[in-house]
Amino acid sequence: MSRKLVYKTLEFDKPERAPRDIWVLPWADLNYPEQVKKLKNDFPQDIKSAGGFAEQSSVVIGDMHTVGTYVDPWGCVFENIQEGIHGEIQEPIVQEEEWEDVEKVHFPYEWFNIDVEGVNSYCKNNDMFVLPGFCARPFERLQFIRGTAQFYMDLVLRPDGMMDFINKLHKFNLDLMESWAKTDVDALFMMDDWGAQNNLLISPEIWIEIFKPMYKDYCDLAKAYGKKMFMHSDGHILKIYPHLIEIGVDALNSQIFCMGLENLAEYAGKITFWGEMDRQHMLSDKEPADIDEAVREIKELLWKDGGCIAQCEFGPGGKPENVMQTFKSWNNVI
């Protein structure tokens, strides 16, 4: 039922209801364990990730969601001061102007050791729509490695070492995505947070020149293997919405309230809005009645015989009653 429901939604084929996708951050598990348990029990997921089927990176130290130092699979060092959320980069790996020290970056080729039989069995033995255990995120990975401010400068200066590394990173992502595409997962997945509160983080021209071709390669790969393409991007990304539709993104998780539902209505029926309920204001500051009204507005403006996934992130500041109401309301509008 769940897998078929998601496909019908993505293809605007009059699904019986909007599929559910609940993102519960460790913060919510720590602060509201009973409410999280009830949420998952009352509103079962329709979408699941096939995580845990690939070999782990040899350089990882610590836990990304606990207080202290965490070294990620690429060797990037994060410092976390709050339990239950992700920390921030303190010291970038690449510090030379021409990226001469880029060899310090660890490419986690261990990730290619995928338990394909385990993944396929997992997909066969549950009825959910399954995403892969890998997500390509080139823009954010480059920031983690270089540091955000310096990387933005490098996008203008274009040192040869950076461009060579981008090509190497893109090939790694493409090859690993192909390894997952050869399994029985239903979609491939990519993400990068491209938006500030009111605009893109970089110029649209640079995005189109450097990053759009990468994303197109990922989408083309997905289509070649008969997979859907899912993407996540926070912030105000209205300027790249038509480009993402053009290259073949099927479902986009974005902050639709940040951009304004009325500004996204022209894309209804062209892409599936993979959430999200507004976590900046609605989930933290409003009441259940406001959540109900917001869901009804999404349905009115963005639902076209499908094209919406009832997705909500339960993280810092979110009221459990508002998260619960998000899924109650979606049950009632369709």
Model description:
By secondary structure, this protein is α/β, with parallel strands linked by helices. It has one domain (2-58, 93-333): TIM Barrel, CATH 3.20.20.210. The chain is built from 14 helices and 11 strands. The protein has helices spanning 2-10, 26-31, 33-42, 116-124, 138-146, 148-157, 160-181, 204-224, 241-247, 256-259, 261-264, 282-285, 288-302, 320-333; strands spanning 20-24, 47-49, 68-71, 77-80, 88-91, 129-131, 187-191, 228-233, 251-254, 272-274, 308-314. Strands 1-11-10-9-8-7 form a 6-stranded parallel beta sheet, with helices on both faces. It has a 3-stranded antiparallel beta sheet with strand order 3-4-5, with no helix packed on it. Strand 3 and strand 4 (77-80) form a beta hairpin. Helix 7 runs parallel beside helix 8. The longest helix has 22 residues, at 160-181. The chain is globular and about 55 Å long. 35% of the residues are buried. The mean pLDDT is 96.
**Ends distance:** 16 Å
From the coordinates shown, what is the CATH architecture? Alpha-Beta Barrel
Ranges with pLDDT <50 over ≥5 residues?
Answer: none
DSSP helix fraction: 40-55%
**Number of helical stretches of at least 4 residues:** 14
CATH domain fold name: TIM Barrel
Q: How many strands in all?
A: 11
> SSE string, helix = H, strand = E?
HEHHEEEEHEHHHEHEHEHHEHHEH
Strand content: 5-15%
Q: What shape does the CA trace take? A: globular
Biggest sheet details: 6 strands, parallel
